[in-house]
Write a structure and sequence with these properties.
Helices cover about 50% and strands about 5% of the residues. A hairpin with a 5-residue loop joins strand 2 and strand 3. A three-stranded antiparallel β-sheet has the order 1-2-3, with no helix packed on it. The termini are far apart. The protein is globular. By secondary structure, the protein is mainly alpha-helical. Keywords: GTPase activation, Metal-binding, Zinc, Zinc-finger.
Amino acid sequence: MGGKGAFWQPIRTFALSQITSLVRRSTLRESDFVAPKYEKVHNFKVHTFRGPHWCEYCANFMWGLIAQGVKCADCGLNVHKQCSKVVPNDCQPDLRHVKKVYSCDLTTLVKAHNAKRPMVVDMCIQELEARGLQSEGLYRISGFSELIEDVKLAFDRDGDKADISTNVYEDINIITGALKLYFRELPIPLITYDAYPHFMEAAKIPDADKRLEALHEALKLLPPAHCETLRYLMGHLKRVTQCTENLMTGENLGIVFGPTLMRAPGLDAMTALNDIRYQRLVVEGLITNEDVLF
């Protein structure tokens, strides 16, 4: 009896390890579909409530006839003005309040749609990689502005149901134009105002290794949703440079995307003009070193 047990033991152990491995792989596949838990601050605005209202944070009555408290424009949370200072950064935007795709805060949009990245970015890049990577001057050549505006309206109206296929927009430059417009119209740029000076300082470092290290540190300052979107975009732009038919190098794409992805508020004209060179170097560096930085 002991002999039979000894015979079957290795087989049982092997079978158990295979089942465990299958379960682990299944769990990993399922986790691919779980949207990340991005932290988001509330977008409170002073609000006049009609009828009696109670604070949703402290549960006390909100006194007064006008401007009794504040309301989050993204999730609808109603609280006292003083309570708004201590409410956790746990805003979960509601699609009833988030009406647009373009010109909407990036983190607000992805949380409202329970996604990793804005659907504009995912859908445009998927369309471009399916039929446009070999197009000469990709991202450099502009499409018709009226049709780009049509794509914008389609996303604002239909969200991820927008049709941007070749049946509707045969010219691939319409899709590149719509993607660039999305980034230009973000209220907070993809490379945020707070992180901007750190990226600019990194671009000015002459030593390549130290410059790469500084870019890596600057990336840590980006909100998670911004960093994930930038990672996905840089991977795409790296693939664009690897397709020689389109004649687009990392330097060319840096010229196109530098001012599109990053800008500093309140700069005088001369400083802004001087920054363009370093913006190009930042984007070119992110593309070239995409596999190391992200």
